[in-house]
Amino acid sequence: MSSTRLEFQLVIVVEPDGDEFHAYVPDLKGLHTCGSTEEEALQNAKEAAIAYIQSLIKHGEPIPIGACGPRRRPKDSVSRVWPDQRIELAVA
Fold it and tell me: 81 pairs with which residues across the strands?
């Protein structure tokens, strides 16, 4: 069976949360994760986004990529926005 590879570009926001880091994807409602380091939180968000999008496809739901964009943050915010993060997934 052949599969199609899809690539998405996402905005991922990572912010300090106590001794860890919180990450979320504004375009994927409810997708929040964490990590011990900023890089780990970013990687966990990418992996969670793949699972999220695979679930949408499996259930025939629309993929809301690009719907929200990053949320505005105050200038003194410690949040870091990672634009154009690429994820790739296979669809059967």
Answer: 13
pLDDT of residue 88: 80
> Is 61 exposed, middle or buried, given 0-12, 13-18 or 19+ CB atoms closer than 10 A?
exposed
pTM of the model: 0.79
Using CA atoms, how far apart are residues 34 and 58, in angstroms rounded to an integer?
25
Q: What separation in angstroms does the CA of 18 have from each of 37, 52, 57, 74, 79?
A: 11, 26, 35, 19, 13
**What is the dotted CATH code of the domain comprising 4-91?**
3.30.160.250
- Go through the chain and tell me how many residues it has: 92
